[in-house]
Amino acid sequence: MDSKQLKSEPMETMTKKQFLLILVGFGFILVISLLVVFSISSKAPSDESDGKATSYDTLYETDKVDDVAKCLEKAKNFRIKIQFNATIGRDLIAVKKRKTGDDLMYNSLWLNGNKSTDIKTLYQARSYACEKKIPVIVIRARPDQGLAVSERLKFWNYYKPTSAIKSWALYDLKLQYYMKILQEVPSIVVVEPDLFMLLNDGSDDSVMVKNQRYQEMFLERVSKLIEGLPKSWVYLDVGNPIFLREHMNELNELAATLTRLQGLRGFVINTQHFMKDEISEFWARKLFCRTGLHYIIDTSRNGGTFSDRNQNQIMSCPFDPPYIKPGASPGWAWGSRNKVVAVGSIYYSTTTTHYQVRSQFLLSRTEATGRMRKKAASMKECIDKPSRNDAQDANVWVKNPGESDGRLYNYGEFQPCLIDHAVTCTGSCQMIAPKDKKSKPKECDCKKKKSSDIDEYSNAYDNYDN
After folding, report:
1. Where are the beta strands (DSSP E) in 16-134?
2. What are phi and psi of 109, to 5 degrees?
3. Where are the beta strands (DSSP E) in 147-291?
4. Residue 82: strand, helix, or coil
5. pTM of the entire structure?
6. Residue 49 — pLDDT band, cuts 50, 70, 90?
7. What is the CA radius of gyration of the chain?
8. Dihedral over Cα of 199, 204, 205, 211: its sign
9. What distance, in Å, lies between the first and last C-alpha atoms of the chain?
10. What's the pLDDT at 439?
């Protein structure tokens, strides 16, 4: 036998052993794999659960509901920070039925400085965010002390309750509390309805001089709010179109004041009022073209025939007027897709597009006026073009339909009959009526029987003075 052949036999023998070992190893792995697959399949859910067939879609919905339920539970604890997935400008603006089976809806949630109602509002806002919806939050808690109101506009506050907040120090504490809880909640935030209008009413120069310090204090707080709510869009209420029309010569001054607020998304128009959308857009456009700021329209009460009346007729009965209905439902407009283009500093010239940057620091009056004038240089082209596609962010209901202005029922009280009733401001039901409604005339009652089932969140001013 050849020596080479003798040397090759041990090699061939070793190769066969290795082959057998590998074969046995694969067989062992195959058996283990089959056992694991059998174990998993025996524990998998059946095709029927509680008599209902399941699918990938229903399983997904179940998981989705579980996630929302967990989020809602966490939302009750204000100390827990939650990363909400809602996207402002994209996801639905939150509305809610007042009670099951009812078609009446409400949209805005009011913070008024009262602890008991604020807690409900804050939880509701966080709950909406859990459901991937955008809440509309209205802050009305400014201190009344130090605010001068002209004789011309004193009637505007006649029915409104006094603020629960008595000083700027307390106001600061409330704002800090709100910002801490809402900083992760994408929201539409409306700041202090009517206040900008009261501060800038030019019918009495002495009142405006008295309010200069108050306005500075207020604008400083709005700036802090803008920076403290990074997920939200903050809007300052500028009143109704009638006010802007009456102050047409002061629009530049109003625009300069708005420009001082760096990072402000925009302003609200037609707040708690009744003017048609076309009129609101026309006057909002005048401010947009001077500032670049976007706007939202309060459409809560401009869908009835009362809104077809002229300015004098509307202002003769602005509290619980007859024949009012909700206008357009809350929802996003095309402007929400666009960023707010800010005007660059007056100290340099550039063609670069500037987008807003949030800051807690107010621009000086000089700087803001200069920027407004730079923007107004192209105003002729802007003012001739409808602004809805460029600048209107949304329709909202700042004043929830059915909530009283104070003429027929206590301020903020919800009564369904307030929607499209026929009680005018003549006869026994004058525009300015006694605040105590216990002895009001029967003809001033627009309902046949009292509603006993009112949603717990429907009365925005419940216990306001407690």
Report:
1. 48-49, 52-53, 96-97, 105-106, 108-111
2. -115, 125
3. 188-191, 233-237, 266-269
4. coil
5. 0.81
6. very low
7. 31
8. negative
9. 114
10. 86
